[in-house]
Write a structure and sequence with these properties.
Layout (H helix, E strand, L loop, with lengths): L6 E4 L6 E5 L30 E4 L12 E3 L7 H7 L6 E3 L12 H18 L5 E5 L3 H12 L3 E5 L11 E2 L8 E2 L10 H7 L6 E4 L2 E5 L2 E2 L6 H11 L7 H7 L7 H14 L19 E4 L4 H7 L4 E4 L3 E7 L2 E6 L4 E4 L1 E4 L3 H5 L4 E3 L4 H9 L1 E3 L1 E7 L11 E4 L8 E4 L1 H4 L3 E7 H9 L2 H11 L11
Parallel strand pairs: 2-14, 5-18, 6-7, 6-18, 7-14, 11-22, 15-19
Antiparallel strand pairs: 1-2, 3-21, 4-20, 8-9, 10-13, 11-12, 15-16, 16-17, 21-24, 22-23, 23-24
Helix pairs in contact: 1-10, 2-3, 5-6
Bound molecules: flavin-adenine dinucleotide.
C-alpha cells in the first residue's frame, strides 16, 4: 500500500509506532473547564470552590455521539450479535456495542476487538491488507492481535489522539491523570486488572459508600428492591422498563434513596430507568472499584506498537463487495483493503457518521436503530482542602435537585482533595449543554449534602 502522507516515528516511551498524519478534519476534544483560583469562585455559588476542574463532552463529540450503548426496553442482546455478524466476510464490526456480555464497558470493547480479530483471521488469506477504523480499545486490541498473527494492518482514527472513549489527561495539578472516559474496574474485572496493573500503574481501591441527603446521612437503599422488581419483570410475558418494573412491584422510582441508586445505574450505563430494559438491565454498580493511577493512553500505545496509525483521519464512506473494501477519508482520498474492522461508536453509526455502499443489510441497520445510546459525562474537581470529613470513596446524593448524584472521593486513595462526578442519561445531556462556569456551579450545588452546613464552624 502506498500512502502519500508524511510518516513520523513516535516513541512515547513504549517503542516506535508509525503515525501517518492526515491534514483533514479539525480535532474534536472534550471540553476542559477553565482553571479557577479560590479567589475566582464561580458566581451564584456560596461555598467551597475548586481550584481546578475538568469535564468531558462526549454527548456533543462527533466521534462518539454519546457515552455508551444500552439495551432499551423491547430490545434483545441478540441485536449486538447481529451487528457483529461479518458482512460479505469483508466488513467486521467491533466496539463495546457489539459485546453481548459487557456492553458499554472497557471490558466489552476489548472482548469485541478480540472477537472481531479472531473471526476475521479465520476468513483471511496470508498477506491480506486489513484496515481498522477507530483507535479506541476495541480497535487497538483488534489491530494488535491481527498484526501479531501476521496481517498487514493500517489503523484510521478520526481524532488526533489514541484511546477514543478512554481519555487520560496528565497534568501535575492532579494526583493521578484525569480520566474523562472509561477507567474504573469492578472486582470481577480480573482481565483488565491484570492488563492495567503494571510497573507504573497502581490500582487504587475505591471502597465504602456514603449516602447523604441535606438532612444528613441516609441508610443505603436495599438493592433487593431493584433486583426483586427486575426478577418479577423477567417472569412477565412482555419486557417493561426498569422504572415500570419498580412501580409494578410497589416501589417508587422517584423515592430519593432509590432515585440515587438508579442515578448510579444510569451514570454507568447511559440509560435512564424509563428506557432501560428490565429483561436485560445493566449491571448494578459494584460496592467497590479499582481505579488505575496511570495514563491509560500508554496502554493503548503499547497495543499499537509498530503499527501504521493514521490520526486525524475520519473515514466517511465504506464501499464493499465480496472481493474487498474501499474506504473514503474525509479528505476525499480512497484506499483499498481486503477487509475492514469498524469500531466506530454506535452513536456515530446512529447519526449516519459513516456512509455505506451498498447500504448495510437490514439486520445491521435494525440493530443500529434498535439499540440505545445514552449520555455519560464526568467532571473532576480539585480543591485546596477537603470540606468533607468522610473517608468513603463512593458518594450517593439523596434528594434535592442536583444534577450529579454519583461521586467518587479520591482523597482516601490519593491523599488529595479531589472529587469526581459521574452523571448519565437525560441529566448528562442537560449537564453537557451547560457552559463551563455553569457546569462547575451545577456540580457544587449537587454536592450540597456533603458540604459543611451553615451552623458548622
Ligand atoms: C464518561 C465515561 C465514563 C466511563 N467509565 C467507564 C468505566 O469506568 N469503566 C468501564 O469499563 N467503561 C467506562 N466507560 C465506557 C468505556 O469507556 C467504553 O465502553 C470503551 O472505551 C469503548 O471503547 P470502543 O473501542 O468500543 O469505542 P471508542 O473508544 O469510542 O473507540 C472508537 C474510535 O473510533 C473513532 N472514530 C469515530 N468515528 C470515526 C470515523 N468516522 N473514522 C475513524 N475513526 C472514527 C473514535 O474517535 C474512537 O477513537 C465510560 C464511558 C464514558 C463516556
Amino acid at each position: 500500500m502506498r500512502m502519500t502522507r508524511r510518516t513520523l516515528l513516535i516513541g512515547a516511551g513504549v517503542g516506535a509506532m508509525s503515525v501517518l498524519l492526515a491534514s483533514c478534519t479539525p480535532e474534536p476534544t472534550p471540553t476542559r473547564t477553565p482553571t479557577r483560583t479560590p479567589t475566582d469562585p464561580p458566581p451564584t455559588f456560596d461555598g467551597p470552590a475548586p481550584t481546578h476542574s475538568m469535564r468531558s463532552a462526549w454527548s456533543t463529540d462527533p466521534f462518539s455521539r454519546g457515552g455508551a450503548s444500552f439495551t432499551p426496553v423491547g430490545a434483545q442482546p441478540s441485536l449486538r450479535a447481529a451487528l457483529a455478524e461479518p458482512i460479505e466476510q469483508r466488513v467486521f464490526f467491533a466496539g463495546e456495542a457489539v459485546d453481548t456480555e459487557y456492553p458499554g464497558t472497557m471490558r466489552g470493547a476489548i472482548r469485541s476487538g478480540e472477537r472481531a480479530a479472531t473471526a476475521l483471521r479465520t476468513r483471511a488469506a496470508a498477506g491480506e491488507r486489513i484496515a481498522v477504523v477507530g483507535a479506541g480499545l476495541a480497535g487497538a486490541v483488534a489491530a494488535g492481535q491481527l498484526t501479531a498473527e501476521g496481517a498487514e494492518v493500517t489503523v484510521f482514527e478520526a481524532r488526533d489522539r489514541l484511546g477514543g472513549r478512554v481519555d487520560s489527561r496528565v497534568d501535575e495539578v492532579w494526583p493521578i491523570p484525569v480520566q474523562l472516559g472509561g477507567w474504573l474496574l469492578g472486582v470481577d474485572d480480573t482481565d483488565l486488572r491484570e492488563r492495567f496493573a503494571g510497573d507504573d500503574t497502581r490500582l487504587l481501591d475505591l471502597v465504602d459508600a456514603e449516602w447523604r441527603s441535606r438532612d444528613g446521612a441516609v441508610e443505603a437503599v436495599d438493592e433487593a428492591v431493584l433486583t426483586g422488581a427486575l426478577e418479577s419483570a423477567q417472569a412477565q410475558a412482555m419486557d417493561v422498563s426498569v422504572a415500570e418494573a419498580l412501580t409494578e412491584n410497589g416501589a417508587d422510582p422517584e423515592e430519593p434513596a432509590l432515585a440515587a441508586l438508579l442515578a448510579a445505574v444510569t451514570a454507568a450505563s447511559g440509560g435512564d430507568p424509563d428506557v432501560l430494559s428490565s429483561w436485560f438491565p445493566p449491571a448494578l454498580p459494584p460496592e467497590s472499584y479499582a481505579a488505575p493511577s496511570a495514563d491509560l493512553t500508554i496502554f493503548i500505545e503499547t497495543l499499537l506498537q509498530g503499527l501504521e496509525v493514521s490520526l486525524s483521519s475520519p473515514v466517511s464512506r465504506v464501499a464493499y463487495d465480496d472481493t474487498g473494501v474501499s474506504l473514503q477519508l474525509g479528505t476525499g482520498e480512497s484506499l483499498s483493503f481486503d477487509r475492514v474492522v469498524l469500531t466506530v461508536p454506535l452513536g456515530v453509526l446512529k447519526h449516519g457518521g459513516l456512509e455505506f455502499s451498498p447500504a448495510l443489510p437490514f439486520t445491521h441497520r435494525g440493530a443500529i436503530a434498535d439499540l440505545g445510546v445514552g449520555a455519560i459525562e464526568t467532571i473532576w474537581l480539585r480543591f485546596d482542602e477537603a470540606f468533607w470529613e468522610t473517608e468513603a470513596a463512593l458518594w450517593h446524593v439523596v434528594g434535592g435537585d442536583g444534577v450529579i448524584r454519583t461521586w467518587f472521593n479520591l482523597r482516601p486513595a490519593t491523599g488529595e482533595p479531589v472529587l469526581v462526578g459521574l452523571v448519565g442519561g437525560k441529566a448528562a445531556g442537560k449537564f453537557a449543554e451547560l457552559g463551563d462556569q455553569e457546569a462547575v456551579v451545577a456540580a457544587l450545588v449537587s454536592l450540597a449534602p456533603f458540604m459543611p452546613s451553615d451552623d458548622e464552624p
